[in-house]
């Protein structure tokens, strides 16, 4: 959804109605997680994807139908063993979609939500999926305000509280309520879609490898910052557009930078005077991934210095060093792919093994898939 919002915001601002299909639930090996979206706008223009191509044709027709009727619909697609020509997912999973019409009248806050997402302001959109409430009705919730309604004041109050809780976690999921927000009932199904700010990727050491890692980090959706104490290397022209470049001592910059459980830290300085105090700081703060470049010998010497500096074994166990997966990488771009692969595998619990040697679902459900 985040990627297609700019196009949707333009349609909305121009008063053009469009059909929006959003994945609200998945099971087994689904190709896209909750929150994936596809929209059909003017002149049959399509943006986004909900399945990677398996059911997009059927979703296109549904989107046109809801725009014509003005009524939201719920649709489920799975795999059919009995009918080879049936619309479904070839991966064997199942996805449930909410397909709703979006117009300035039906969703006046859509443009405001899109603007918040564009500027990094956190917001959660709650949408009625099923039950005795207006299907497709939306409620936009920010940390300090809310707008819209799901059809009942009690339901709005309960959903607003839950939306703020999920926003803090950056989660998107289904919740169930009674018609007036009763917690122990499940008549009304609501999809909470959180748009938290992009996670940070902090790359230390403005070397050739850093440019490649920054490029792939930006591609994966991270807000990337490259930091180096040497101004001759830390120049914006050496890095992709949109990547922040900071001239500062790495450990000092990190000490003054907020991190969280989604933050990725890549230490490419390859110099003890930089990376030891930097890692000492990094290993004692929240982060999803902390990796450091270097040979096996460099790694052992680094561990010794960190231990001498008072870093505990528990803290050292968080360090991915040498960073990256064993792909046989040689060039900076190949090494960046190796690092990105390790970050993705760690995030989703992947083994890093070739899929030909594994069994089970290729896209297993994960609670934080959104």
Automatic annotation (TrEMBL):
Transmembrane segments: none annotated. Residues 11-78, 118-178 form the XdhC- CoxI domain. Coiled coil: none annotated. Signal peptide: none annotated. Residues 201-343 form the XdhC Rossmann domain. Pfam families: XdhC_C, XdhC_CoxI. This is XshC-Cox1 family protein. It comes from Streptomyces fodineus.
């Amino acid at each position: 959804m985040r990627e297609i919002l700019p196009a949707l915001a333009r349609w909305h601002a121009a008063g053009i109605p469009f059909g929006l299909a959003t994945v609200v639930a998945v099971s087994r090996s689904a190709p896209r997680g909750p929150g994936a979206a596809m929209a059909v706008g003017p002149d049959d223009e399509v943006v986004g994807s909900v399945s990677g191509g398996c059911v997009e044709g059927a979703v296109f027709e549904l989107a046109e139908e809801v725009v014509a009727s003005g009524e939201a619909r719920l649709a489920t697609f799975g795999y059919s063993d009995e009918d080879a020509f049936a619309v479904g997912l070839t991966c064997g999973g199942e996805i449930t979609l909410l397909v709703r019409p979006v117009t300035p009248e039906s969703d006046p806050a859509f443009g405001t939500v899109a603007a918040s997402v564009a500027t990094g302001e956190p917001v959660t959109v709650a949408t009625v999926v099923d039950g005795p409430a207006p299907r497709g009705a939306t409620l936009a919730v920010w940390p300090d305000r809310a707008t819209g309604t799901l059809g009942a004041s009690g339901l709005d109050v309960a959903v607003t509280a839950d939306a703020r809780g999920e926003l803090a976690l950056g989660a998107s999921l289904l919740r169930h309520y009674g018609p007036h927000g009763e917690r122990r009932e499940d008549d009304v199904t609501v999809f909470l879609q959180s748009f938290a700010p992009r996670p940070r990727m902090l790359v230390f050491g403005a070397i050739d490898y850093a440019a490649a890692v920054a490029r792939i980090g930006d591609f994966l959706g991270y807000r990337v910052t490259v930091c180096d104490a040497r101004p001759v290397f830390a120049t914006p022209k050496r890095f992709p557009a949109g990547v922040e470049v900071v001239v500062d001592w790495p450990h000092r910059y990190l000490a003054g930078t907020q991190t969280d459980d989604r933050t990725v830290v890549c230490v490419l300085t390859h110099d003890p005077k930089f990376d030891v105090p930097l890692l000492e700081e990094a290993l004692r703060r929240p982060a999803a991934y902390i990796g450091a470049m270097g040979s096996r010998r460099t790694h052992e010497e680094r561990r010794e210095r960190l231990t001498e500096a008072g870093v505990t074994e528990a803290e050292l166990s968080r360090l991915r060093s040498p960073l990256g997966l064993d792909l046989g990488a040689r060039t900076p771009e190949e090494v960046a792919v190796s690092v990105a692969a390790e970050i993705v595998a760690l995030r989703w619990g992947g083994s890093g093994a070739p899929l030909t040697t594994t069994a089970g679902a290729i896209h297993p459900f994960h609670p934080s898939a959104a």
